[in-house]
Amino acid sequence: MTMRGLSSGKGKDKISVSSLSLRMVIGIEEWERKDKQEILIDYEFECDCSKAGQTDDIKDAVDYKVVNKKVLELQKLTDIKTIERLACLITEVILEDQNILSTTVYVTKMGALRWSDSVTVQITRP
């Protein structure tokens, strides 16, 4: 069975991961760095899903479980001060997969500002 439009080459399909929770030391103030804080990560990336869509084989897909595991490994770092830096590191990890064309990453720090629930940084890289 062939699927219309799936063999046209590099598609711009998207895969999204939402509300990934990291517990890590992060912050610029000394009091912020005493305990681990919850950081929420959302990311999406563009890739070509056409071959995996036809073959139904993980070997033909971006293995987002592997990508996610690499993102989770970043919570072990203790030298990150800003969510901007964390977002840049996450984009680098995601783009290590040669099948990923671009990514957008959202990093949310709860309680970062008085009178607000959270602050989110969004970074997009080709």
Give a nutshell description of this structure.
The protein is of the alpha+beta class and 126 residues long.
Say how many strands there are: 4
Q: Name the CATH class.
A: Alpha Beta
Number of domains: 1
Assign an overall shape: elongated
What is the name of the CATH architecture?
2-Layer Sandwich
Proportion in β-strands: 25-35%
Word description of this protein:
With 126 residues, the chain is of the alpha+beta class. It has a single domain (13-125), classed as GTP Cyclohydrolase I, domain 2 (2-Layer Sandwich). The protein is 22% helix and 33% strand. It is built from three helices and four strands, in the order ββαααββ. The protein has helices at residues 50-55, 64-73, 83-94, and strands spanning 13-24, 37-47, 100-110, 118-125. The chain has a four-stranded antiparallel beta sheet, with helices on one face. A hairpin with a 7-residue loop joins strand 3 (100-110) and strand 4 (118-125). The protein is elongated, with a radius of gyration of 17 Å.
SSE blueprint:
Blueprint: E1 13-24, E2 37-47, H1 50-55, H2 64-73, H3 83-94, E3 100-110, E4 118-125
List keywords for this structure.
3 helices, elongated, GTP Cyclohydrolase I, domain 2, 33% strand, 126 residues, alpha+beta, 4 strands, four-stranded antiparallel beta sheet, disordered N terminus
